[in-house]
Hints:
- The structure is a homodimer.
- By secondary structure, chain A is of the alpha+beta class.
- In chain A, 31% of the residues lie in helices and 27% in strands.
- Chain A has two domains: 21-330, Bira Bifunctional Protein, Domain 2 (BirA Bifunctional Protein, domain 2, 2-Layer Sandwich), CATH 3.30.930; 347-436, Rossmann fold (3-Layer(aba) Sandwich), CATH 3.40.50.
- In chain A, a hairpin with a 5-residue loop joins β5 (94-97) and β6.
- Chain A is globular.
- Chain A starts with 20 loop residues before the first helix and ends with a helix.
Amino acid sequence: MFLSKLFLPLTKDLPADAKIKSHQLMLRTGMIKQSAAGIYSWLPLGFKVMKKIEQIVREEQNKIGAQEMLMPTIQSADIWKESGRYNDYGEEMLRIKDRQGREMLYGPTNEELITEIFRSSIKSYKSLPQMLYHIQWKFRDEIRPRFGIMRCREFYMKDAYSFDLDEDQAKQSYNKMFYSYLHTFKRLELEAIPMAADTGPIGGDLSHEFIILAETGESNVYADKNIFKIKLEDYKFDNNSLEKMRNDFSSYYAVTDEKFKKEEFEKKIKKENQILTKGIEVGHIFYFGDKYSKPLNCLVDHPDGKKVAVKMGSYGIGVSRLVGAIIEAKFTNEIMKWPKSVSPFEVVLIPSINKNNTENLEKALKIYRQLKSENIDVLLDDVDENISAKFKKHDLLGIPYQIIIGSKSEGDNLEFKEIGHNAIMQTLNKIINTIKN
Amino acid sequence: MFLSKLFLPLTKDLPADAKIKSHQLMLRTGMIKQSAAGIYSWLPLGFKVMKKIEQIVREEQNKIGAQEMLMPTIQSADIWKESGRYNDYGEEMLRIKDRQGREMLYGPTNEELITEIFRSSIKSYKSLPQMLYHIQWKFRDEIRPRFGIMRCREFYMKDAYSFDLDEDQAKQSYNKMFYSYLHTFKRLELEAIPMAADTGPIGGDLSHEFIILAETGESNVYADKNIFKIKLEDYKFDNNSLEKMRNDFSSYYAVTDEKFKKEEFEKKIKKENQILTKGIEVGHIFYFGDKYSKPLNCLVDHPDGKKVAVKMGSYGIGVSRLVGAIIEAKFTNEIMKWPKSVSPFEVVLIPSINKNNTENLEKALKIYRQLKSENIDVLLDDVDENISAKFKKHDLLGIPYQIIIGSKSEGDNLEFKEIGHNAIMQTLNKIINTIKN
């Protein structure tokens, strides 16, 4: 892609309500544009990042055997009346009347709808366990949407649901999701800590939030830094190992304000191991047994002949929110660096362009074609602008690798830079190897 | 994937309103489930097909230089008041009041919103031409939703928008989309005919519908069969060749009832060349000049100094609708065959399973692992069911290739069948080559 062709409206004028750095950076680099209060359009750069995050979430869900499907955004109020949540949910639910006067709503979450689908599809324990997920837009009519896409009204979320015959098996499903989440965040180069949490409006008796550390986060985090000694690769994908994984994480102190008690923290954790920082919630998982299957009459035949309500859990990851969360975690001192797994481009070519001398641009074009032939997704900055302005711009765009075509690049040796490291001189073949890892 | 694990609620009980074959087949094979009137959930099998169609649409849009982004589903009524369509649109628009009492709506189309994004982003002719597209859920509150996902309320659509400085350039963008659409439908193995059309509520002065032929279609089609002699590969992706392509298509008679005149048809087209059949609209493209850019004040600087309203077009493909359209075109005599490009699986393994004899299942498992190691997306029918029931089921599921592990398969030679052809005996290596093409 040539930068001059990319639909990328960079801006310096920030609205007064852009108070946090992810909101600011996303506007400055033309990733999003507000279309209404708390409702955003995703412009090509932001869209690419979000799609890459979505794909990683999807792959890690598929790996644990969850099956993808898709529920609609607009739901009937009827099933919410069956579960009893229609009145409870309050004003955050966007309620709609269609032209026939039927009560509808824009789904803020999908426990009711998935339970309704399940109860009319699955009748026997033989078809259990099942894990289903979808990645879909949701709407919560926040009274005061803020922080850009971090606390907006229309947001993109992966939500999964597990269905098991009994609590033991349901907890195995829970542990699989626990494992999937940690692998997902790892691929996003985020340090995510699972923390025991209250269950809130979803309900149930077992729940974890996944919090990533970021100094600008919304919640205070209190943790024992030994929790980072746990290595994901030490656990296998079997029930015992996954149970041990969850127990190992639970054995370390890690809470937000919700569960924080100062004396306990001071007493249990040595001073030098205390982490006091901030964090951002990027995932939340729940086990809630038959909270929905019972009122909605979602029953299966048990091997011993009777009918039992399936035991369910639900598992959310904020896909659009993760775009902002990554920025909060990775953008410091006016320099952004996207994790390679979700960067909008793999590498940017930055030729120094002088009027009346197109040599650097021509050289860059040649390299561009070579990189394309290697299936590398490269951005060529062909804009006629001075080189220091270009560098500042690319510090914000955050593409992790840069090839700079200026006075230093000579013959086969090119100036190659990974953001956060010094530039080095390297041949194109070596650069290609580095990019491809 | 093992069929016994796949969330695939097959059903024989069809609701009375399932009158057309795509609606029936999608319910019978557990591709969709109705969640409210005209609103469907996509179960794993249907979801996979839709995602593959989406990906082909995306690739063909990217090939012509359109850039993907994403607009939200919920829009503010304000921009629709600016364009003057808010009152005109009528009851098909799902109108919503949020908790603050603001007038919102669920987007039925996006001309206003994209124009608003464009006007605040692009100021100069130097940034033109631009083509932007997104693939997003839309809602039209049909008074009588019917025919399953063919005429539903919440539907998935690709809509693209072009922005040009003048009418000549805008028509070049129009021709590029024309080309992209024909290539898209070709990859879906559909015979699509572009037909000059009225512009309807979108407006404008140039418009084509893309109609695929299907005996059960909603519109009557009258055409000169010589139109099928046009070969896509005869045209290059340059402005002259694309102009010629559109002219060549336009030179053959091809209309729906809207523009049909019996005498003209009889007079112009020789009897033996007359096609009288039915068709389904799967795409619609429009050039409408400054119909939206003018009222919304979407201006750019012209090279000669003045400001001019950009010239726009819009281009839709019904992604969810295509799933049904393909079934209408391909499902005959109780046998479905998915185009290979969008089939939910590439091949199905059908072992004949007898109680007390797991030999065929074990053999199938071994082949399953070999196919997986070749990255072939294979479904193993491990369900304990008699072989003739299996065959009937797979006639409906429509996976184009079958490997049958029964009495005929011996040693290295396997019974291999492509739907619509006779079974042949073939080695696994040859089968793998055939599947991979």
